[in-house]
Amino acid sequence: MAVPGQLPSQALVYEVLSEGLEPEFQRLEARRLQTVTYPAWRWQNTVFVSLQVDSKATDPYSGGGFRVELEKSDNKLPALGLNGRAMFFQLLTLADLQPLLERQNEVIRGLPRPPRKQVDLYPAGRVRDRYLAYFEPQASFGGVQSWLRFHSVEDVMCWAPLLSPLLGTLMSRAEALLRVDERSLGKGSLL
């Protein structure tokens, strides 16, 4: 069981994920963008794939998270102007998501349980309940539960082998299903 401590830094998470995903992006002929502050790739001049670490997830017990976002845009960089954006889970089938959900729950099971003193830092009611829910198995991905979790560098390292085989599918579906003039971010499955 992991011991609470310092979570991997945003920079380290980005480095580990980028190194793990880069071979598949190269195989798919997606080009890494060097002009944005987070890892992002461009495919066929219209689809962007970006990684985003949750900068608010810094709790030593519940860990951190990152997500994969896709965007269809005519712009040269992601997140500029009007664009079609979606999160990874919106472009995957339940069968595609199953290995990711299994890994998510492995990470959750490995989290150190917070002591009562830590739980009491959160106001009783919805805020505390939301915090405690971070330690419960996750049944699906959604607008709120869109983050792929980690507590250690080893957790981060396990995500790339699961995500790599899905990159081609994600980018093809983003190209086919997203519209440059409509955001779909977090609204449910687009399939």
Q: What is the beta-strand fraction?
A: 15-25%
Structural class: alpha+beta
Percent range for helical residues?
Answer: 25-40%
The main sheet comes to: 6 strands, antiparallel
Residue stretches low in confidence (pLDDT < 50, at least 5 long) are none
Shape: globular
- Write down the Rg: 17 Å
The total number of structural domains is 1
- Count of alpha and pi helical runs: 6
| Count of extended strands | 6
Write the layout of secondary structure elements.
Layout: H1 10-27, E1 31-32, E2 40-43, E3 47-53, E4 64-72, E5 84-87, H2 94-110, H3 116-119, H4 126-133, E6 148-150, H5 153-163, H6 167-177
Antiparallel strand pairs: 1-2, 2-3, 3-4, 4-5, 4-6
Helix pairs in contact: 1-5, 2-5
Word description of this protein:
The chain has 191 residues and is an alpha+beta fold. It has one domain (10-177). It has helices at residues 10-27, 94-110, 116-119, 126-133, 153-163, 167-177, and strands spanning 31-32, 40-43, 47-53, 64-72, 84-87, 148-150. The longest helix is centred in the first third of the chain and has 18 residues, at 10-27.
